[in-house]
Amino acid sequence: MPILRLKNISKMSSEERDKNLSDLRVELARLKTMVRAGGAVEKPGRIRELRKTIARILTIENEYKLGIRVVKEKKVNKPKQPKKQKETQTK
User: DSSP state, 23?
Assistant: First the structure.
């Protein structure tokens, strides 16, 4: 299961993505040092998920910078206007 889904990452602001990115990088570094030191990691698959999530965040951030992905604005519902009735012409 991914740590952050694509929808969640897209909805975040740039600052939130940067904060999550730094947090994930710190956690990844901590897990990698545990592995290198010969310690056992509870969930070894977590390292892979962290790497993938970091890549997702960087990809989405880059897409926003290049203009590939556009910030979606919230739709505003306009009030519906009544339908116009056809006028019948009399002779």
Answer: H
Q: Tell me: the pLDDT tens digits for 21-43?
A: 999 999 999 999 999 999 888 89
Q: Taking the chain, what is the end-to-end CA distance rounded to the nearest angstrom?
A: 73
| Tokens coding 74 | 């919230």
Determine the residue type at 33. T
State the residue for tokens 């019948």: 88
pTM above 0.70, yes or no: yes
Instruction: For residue 6, give the nearest of 73, 58, 74, 68 by alpha carbon.
Output: 58
How does DSSP classify residue 40? Answer: P
Domains defined along the chain, listed by start: 13-66 (1.10.287.310)
Q: How many CB atoms lie within 10 A of CB 28?
A: 17
